[in-house]
Amino acid sequence: MSDITITRAVRMPDLFRIERSLSNPKLGPRLLFFSGGSALNGVSQTLKRYTHNSIHLVTPFDSGGSSQGLRVAFDMPAIGDLRSRLMALADETVLGHPEVFRLFTHRFSKSAGQANLADELDSMIAGAHILVSAIEQPMRTLIQNQLGVFRAACPPSFDLRGASIGNLILAGGYLNQSQELEPIIFLVSKLVGVQGIVRAVTDDNLHLGAELANGRTIIGQHLLTGKEHAPLTSPVKEFFLNAGLADKQPAFSTFPERNRSLMQSADLMCYSPGSFYTSLVANLLPKGVGQAISKRTVPKVFVPSIGSDPETAGMGLSDKVNTLLSYLRRDAGADCPVDRLLNFVLVDHNAEPDDFPELRELGLTILKLDLVTDQSAPYYDPVSLCEALISLT
C-alpha cells in the first residue's frame, strides 16, 4: 500500500460539489473543525443542509458561565460548548426528535426560587414534567436516569437558576459513566439525531492559562476572553494548559486515539473563527494534535475571525497565522513544512490586510470570496462560508 497525492483545479464556488452535497447530505464530505464557544454554531446549523458527516473537535476548558458551576460542583471538564454544538447539529425535522431537542435547550428561570427549581427538576426526574412526558420511551427513561444521577450528586449549594437542562443531563451522564465524556456525548448524539460528529478534543479536566508580554500570568478561560471580565491589556506571550484555577500548574494532555482516527478520515480541516486562543489554539495544545494534522494530506483552511477579538488586540493576520503555525509545530516538529499544516487562508473579498505578501511567502493561498452579506455583517454569512469549504473538498 502506498500513499499518493492528487491535485485538482478548483472553481470557487464549485457549483457541482455544492449541488451534489445539497442533493444528498448523508453522503456529504467530512469537514473537520477545530473550535469552541458559540462562534461556529450558526455555521453548524447551516452545514446540515450540505453534509451529515462534519466532525467537530470542541474545547472542554471553559471556566465561566453555567459550565463553571458544574465544574466546581463535580470537578469535571466544561460541557457547555459541547452541548451547544450538539444542539446546533441536531436533526430539528419531524424525522428527528424535536421533543428531546426542546428539553435539551430548555433553561430554568433565572428569577425563580431554588426550592421551586428543585421541585421542577424533581418533576422531570419523575417523568411528570410536560417536557419530559412528551418524550417517547425508552429515551424518556434514559434522560430521567441521567437527571436522577445529577440530582443525587448535586451539592445543596448548587445554583439551578438559569441552568441548561442539557448541561444537567450531560453532567449526570458524565458521573454515571465513570467520569468519561465520550459515552454520554455518544448517547446524546443519538437522542437528538446529531447530523455530524461532536467530540471533546480531550477528556482531561484542565484549564487554560496565559503568560502575557508584561509578565503577568492569567489562569482561567473566563479571564482571557474579554467577555466576562476586562479585556487583556498586554499580548499573550505563552498559552498553556493548567491543572487548576488557583495558580500556575502547567499540565500535559494527550490527544485520544479515537480522535486521531477521526482526523485521518477528514476531507478538509478548518481552523475555525472564534476566540483565537481560547477556542482555536486551545484545541491544538494536547500532545498529538499537530502530528495528526501533519499526517493527513487534505486541504487545511484558516478562517480568521472578523470583528473584535479581545484576545488578539494588536495582532495582524500574519501574526495570527504565524502563532497558529508555531503551536502546531510544537507537536508536529519545528521543521514541519507549512503545507503539511496549513494551505489556505479564507477571507472576505473586502479584506485588505497589508500582510498578504508575507502570507504568500509562506506558500499559503489567500482566497478572497464574498463571505459577508448585508444581513450577516459583521459576521460571516453561514451559507457562503459553508459553500466555500464544500468547494475545497
UniProtKB/TrEMBL annotation:
<dbReference type="InterPro" id="IPR027591">
    <property type="entry name" value="CofD-rel_GAK"/>
</dbReference>
<protein>
    <submittedName>
        <fullName>CofD-related protein, GAK system</fullName>
    </submittedName>
</protein>
<dbReference type="InterPro" id="IPR038136">
    <property type="entry name" value="CofD-like_dom_sf"/>
</dbReference>
<dbReference type="InterPro" id="IPR002882">
    <property type="entry name" value="CofD"/>
</dbReference>
<dbReference type="Pfam" id="PF01933">
    <property type="entry name" value="CofD"/>
</dbReference>
